[in-house]
Amino acid sequence: MGFEIISYGFMQRALVSGIAIALMCSVVGLFLVLRRHSLFGDALAHSAFGGIAAGLFLGIYPMWTAFIVSILSALGLTKIRQRFQISGDATVAILLSSGLAMGVILISLAGGFTVNLFSFLFGSILLVSLENTILILGLAGSILIVILLLYKQFVYTTFNEEQAKVSGIQVEKVSYLLVVIAGITVVSSMQLVGILLTSSLIVIPNVTAMLFSRGFKQTTILSMSFAVFSAVIGILTSYSFNIAPGGMIVLISIIIFGVSLGLKSLRKNKFIRKPITARS
Amino acid sequence: MKLVEIENLSVNYDGILALEKVSFSVEEKDFLGIIGPNGAGKTTLFSCMLGLLNNYQGEIRFFGTNIRKSKQYLRQIGYVPQKPTFEKNFPATVAEVVRMGLRKNQKDNVIDNVLQKVWLHELSHRRIGDLSGGQQQRVFIAKALVSEPQILILDEPVTGIDLQSKDLFYQILRDLNQKDKITIIWSSHDLDAVAKLAGMVACLNRTLFFHGISEEFFHNENLLKMYSESSMQMHMHHHEN
Predict the structure, then answer these.
(1) Which residues of A touch B79 (CB under 8 A)?
(2) Which domains does chain A show, CATH number per domain?
(3) Phi, psi of B51 (to 5 degrees)
């Protein structure tokens, strides 16, 4: 494998989109993981599947319907959870199955689609167009800027909602904004790893980063690094060995997680934890 | 100067009266201990005062303004909850948690000063989840103090904390009130600590049956007897339920 593959237009678009999606997923994912909403991404991706099927059925560009359905589902799910006090995992299960059901019904009504659904299920980053690359860059840039501007509000409401409320933060608005951002992130990332593997990009780099870091900023930077590394190496190796890039990206992030677990347990065995010495 | 005025505060949870016509006020630099048995309505009272619960009757004023009209008063309040719940593995250092309490125009160097006040400056780079319960509560005091509030509200802050940590915690509270002139409103089960620290006492059991100078309460055997009887009744009530 030489460097010439980077000179190909499709590879440049794949790498640029992959890096942007990896950054978006790791940053948004950290808030979801810490709010114990790790499977929220999975549920949104499945509801997006319903949106894609609706788009194909109605003859609308499926990514747009996926965005709409995913954002509406995210908002609806949050409202239901707040209003009826249904547990988070139950609402995720409802959303996940209803999205899939909607998709399957629309597909069977249409008697199957000519478009390859496989690319939506497992991603098709090597086929990403220039227009889509620009869209992904725009969305990733906007989401990262919003998170940077409202960084304190996001961190504080994730840490402790009640205290954030007392300090004057509009917790509900921040939570709604976060789920909208999560919906956009999930639909964008479908192009990289597909519906079935989206939640892995949201969860694995963050869980890996949390093994090593003490602080929030440190965790964010580490998680972004792991996600970008997995995306770049995954795309390059998948092309060289003719493997599906989505699966390869996730596999690399799992390898990083496994190695990190090993390193962490080695470090634990080697050093006795320093006692906390300040006045207790 | 009256910083807090509560008038005829009543709270009804689905037909059950949690608070009934509670009225009292808090003067500047007061150290008010709110005592009462479990279920007496202390946390409900704080929830109303902090704007977390809005379906109450009566009026609550901070700095002379009805809190239903403006939430600006929250900028002058530091709040330490009973047991702050957060994800055990939350990746935040002590300094990052304290920074959450900073106001927009404040600089980071305030964090070190406030951590020194609560004897935690050596642990500023530790992950919050690695600290003991007592140390975590001091971090939350530091977070509440970093915005330099006029009033500190603490809801049974030493529940489940060891004796040594409690003593240190009480020493910090005394210094904050006496040296830094911060008004403190503090709910507690620990009558001995309230007797030692608080200048004013409010005794709550759904209704307020005493509010006044601490010595007056703790030297009045009738009041103490009334308090223990009402606590016992509440205790029995909890067991019956």
Answers:
(1) 163, 166-167
(2) 9-267 (1.10.3470.10)
(3) 80, 15
Q: Is the pLDDT of residue B23 over 90?
A: yes
CA B95 to CA B127: how far, in whole Å?
A: 9
CA distance A109 to A100: 14
- Indicate whether B142 belongs to any domain: no
CB contact under 8 A, B71 and A168: yes
Angle at A76 between CA A71 and CA A79, to 5 degrees: 130
Q: Looking at the predicted structure, is the pLDDT value of residue A211 above 90?
A: yes
C-alpha to C-alpha distance for A113 and B184, rounded to whole angstroms = 68
Confidence category of residue A113, pLDDT binned at 50, 70, 90: low
User: Is residue B99 one of the residues assigned to a domain?
Assistant: no
Sheet containing B151-155: give its strands across.
B77-80, B151-155, B183-188, B31-35, B200-205, B207-213
In A, which residues are within 8 Å of B165 by CB distance?
A: 280
Residue B218's domain spans which residues?
A: 2-83+150-240
Residue A59 CA to its chain's centroid (Å): 27
Count of A-B CB contacts under 8 Å? 87
Nearest to B84 among A160, A217, A278 (CB): A160
> What letters, b where the CB count within 10 A reaches 16 and e where it falls short, cover A33-47?
bbbebbbbbbbbbbb
CATH number, position B226: 3.40.50.300
Task: Evaluate if residue A278 carries a pLDDT over 80.
Answer: no
| Predicted complex ipTM exceeds 0.90 | no
Please report how many Cα atoms fall inside a 13 Å half-sphere around the Cα of residue A178, on the Cβ side: 28
Number of domains in chain B: 1
B138 in a domain, yes or no? no
| Facing residue for A215 by CB, picked from B93, B119, B130 | B93
Candidate from B51, B74, B89 with C-beta closest to A210:
B89
> C-alpha B214: how far from its chain's center?
17
Put simply, the answer to whether A166 touches B77 (Cβ < 8 Å) is: yes
Is residue B90 domain-resident? no
Q: With beta carbons under 8 A apart, name residues in chain B contacting A164.
A: 100
Q: Which of A162, A163, A215 sits opposite B96 (nearest CB)?
A: A215
Instruction: Indicate whether this model's pTM tops 0.90.
Output: no
pLDDT band at A4 (very low <50, low <70, confident <90, very high): confident
Q: Is B164 in Cβ contact with A280 (below 8 Å)?
A: yes
Which residues of chain B lie closer than 8 angstroms to A155, CB-CB? 92, 96, 100
Q: Is the pLDDT of residue B232 over 70?
A: no
